[in-house]
Amino acid sequence: MDFHLTEAEQMLQATAREFAKNEIEPVAAAVDRAEVFAMDNFKKLAEVGFTGLAIPAEYGGSGGDIMSLSIVMEEVARACASTCDIVDAHISLCARPILLYGNEEQKKKYLPPLCSGEKVGAFAITEAEAGSDIANIKTTAVRDGDDYVLNGSKLFITNGPACDTIVVFAGIPDLAPRGMTAFIVEADMPGFSRGPQYEKVGMKGATNAELVFDNMRVPAANRLGEEGKGMKICLGTLDEGRIGIACQAVGISQAVLEHCVEYAKERKQFGKPIAENQAIQWMLVDMACQIESARLLMYKAARIMDEGGNPSRAAAMAKLVASDSCMQIAVNGIQILGGYGYMMDSPMQRYFRDAKLTQIYEGTSEVQRMVIARDLLR
């Protein structure tokens, strides 16, 4: 058992940390205020190859594995959680399922522009009646000659306002109730449209929108995997996505801790830095322990996936612990900063707003408990 990163992983971490600190962190507040897709940050990530992580070089990627991707995503989230959310949806939820479940023609066509940042990726499963209950999707795909005709809509889709390539899930009526099937959809196909961008509490630079499919003809060549295999593809993809959310949560938590440590050393009350108060020290210690625990669970899930094991339980545990800890750490961070922590010119309010979403998407904390309980009791 080795709790240390390899030399190559340490170098990648240092590179990602320096890049995020210099290029992403200085604009994080502006990205949050603008509430538009953080395209500049996305292009910066593409320039250094981070939009092609965990994709082989033969398909235009930067190589590496899920552990490498996790290390980079934590550092990006530490600087700007919105930007990390964009990367997670782009790679883990779009490029990676095409790599894992696509045929050679699909991989050669769609992965290079995703890896280069020419195209933005997204993943569309959530609907009005299918949030946690993903089996209840109503979007349909009916075979018509060499095409499938898609009808329906998807809600709250991350990268929705900017996406070009989307992994979409629809039900084939003739195969119901096990007809869920995955498709690679291009945003310039006739019949595709977007609803207005949603206004969110946090992660405002990772914009969301409704995606609408109105008699949209999708070539059969764009079907991802076999008919009726969409549930397997979706669940496997969500396992990777949950590791990504754990990375986001750990990154946010680390940013809170560092900010609180710095503030506690400088802020004086009753003639001494508040860092000398045991109550503050214990809050900082609890944060550090929670972060380390969440990070190790995240690393474990990534290692299991890279070694070809079943990561479902480990990924659910990582996301559950990391996101719940992140929310508590963000609340305590505001408490340590006091009145200043509650002001909008403090980064703490952004960490707090961003933290909450990690408990909701890619399966709520309650869904993670269901996944873990099912594994324990089977």
CATH classification, class level of the largest domain = Mainly Alpha
Report the helical percentage.
40-55%
Low-confidence stretches: none
Order of helices and strands: HHHHHHEEEEEEEEHEEHHHH
CATH homologous superfamily heading of the largest domain: Butyryl-CoA Dehydrogenase, subunit A, domain 3
Cα-based radius of gyration, to the nearest Å: 21 Å
Task: Provide the CATH topology of the largest domain.
Answer: Butyryl-CoA Dehydrogenase, subunit A, domain 3
What kind of assembly state do the chains in view correspond to? Answer: single chain
Count of domain modules: 3
User: In order across it, which strands form the biggest sheet?
Assistant: 1-4-5-8
Largest sheet: 4 strands, mixed
Q: Counting H and I runs of at least 4 residues, what is the number of helices?
A: 11
Features:
4-stranded mixed β-sheet; 3 domains; alpha+beta; single chain; 378 residues; Butyryl-Coa Dehydrogenase, subunit A, domain 1; 4-stranded antiparallel β-sheet; 16% strand; Butyryl-CoA Dehydrogenase, subunit A, domain 3; Butyryl-CoA Dehydrogenase, subunit A, domain 2; globular
Describe the structure.
The protein is α+β, with helices and mostly antiparallel strands and 378 residues long. It folds into three domains: 7-120, Butyryl-Coa Dehydrogenase, subunit A, domain 1, CATH 1.10.540; 122-228, Butyryl-CoA Dehydrogenase, subunit A, domain 2; 231-377, Butyryl-CoA Dehydrogenase, subunit A, domain 3. It contains eleven helices and ten strands. The strands form three sheets. It has a four-stranded mixed sheet. Helix 4 (66-79) packs antiparallel against helix 5 and helix 5 runs antiparallel to helix 6 (104-116). The longest helix is centred in the middle third of the chain and has 37 residues, at 230-266.
